Design the sequence.
């Protein structure tokens, strides 16, 4: 009888252990839901980090989406009559027609109120050959011997209004053509003293300036 009871007890214990093992191998519905929730949270965190990184590097402004970079311009002065540093043709000197040479410029900065040109001979103590102001920033240059009607020309150091070309007494001189982009009107009146007008322009607040050099020999 005792042997029979012992056998039954062992059988019941073994049966209970078998049921418990099956429950461990089959996950419950609660465990599945928890895993899905954890996965969703991780995906949301990744998206937030990516957005935060973009903002930290400047967002749309830094990438150019909302703010465009400013393009710098460089004022440049040239002449179709002669290359920089080359001889000025005789037509523009005292041995020729003695008319003002054609000039061209590019890269006028935004905000320019007026353009002005000063021509000096640095080999003759800065002798003034031409001062022309009142040039519109919309102009791309001036034609040979034909300044724009709205421009104002001052007296040069020969005592004549407008252009008087190179006429060195001896040797070869250098001539400095310089254009100024003024941030406000010069207020110069036509026929004023050229040396004073040149000094006013050269000491004014400018947005940009550019130079062109030419040479001329004594007649």
Sequence:
């Amino acid at each position: 009888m005792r042997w029979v009871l012992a056998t039954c007890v062992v059988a019941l214990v073994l049966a209970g252990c078998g049921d418990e093992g099956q429950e461990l191998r089959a996950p419950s519905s609660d465990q599945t839901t928890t895993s899905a929730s954890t996965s969703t949270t991780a995906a949301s965190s990744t998206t937030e980090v990516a957005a935060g990184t973009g903002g930290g590097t400047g967002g749309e402004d830094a990438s150019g989406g909302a703010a465009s970079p400013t393009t710098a311009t460089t004022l440049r002065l040239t002449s179709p009559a002669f290359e920089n540093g080359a001889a000025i043709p005789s037509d523009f000197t005292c041995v020729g027609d003695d008319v003002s040479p054609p000039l061209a410029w590019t890269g006028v900065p935004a905000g320019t109120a007026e353009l002005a040109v000063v021509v000096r001979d640095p080999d003759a103590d800065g002798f003034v050959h031409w001062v022309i102001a009142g040039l519109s920033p919309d102009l791309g240059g001036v034609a040979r011997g034909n300044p724009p009607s709205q421009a104002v020309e001052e007296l040069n150091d020969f005592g004549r209004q407008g252009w008087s070309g190179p006429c060195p007494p001896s040797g070869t001189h250098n001539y400095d053509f310089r254009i100024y982009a003024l941030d406000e009107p010069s207020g110069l009146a036509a026929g004023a003293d050229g040396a004073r007008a040149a000094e006013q322009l050269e000491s004014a607040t400018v947005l940009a300036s550019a130079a062109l050099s030419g040479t001329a020999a004594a007649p």
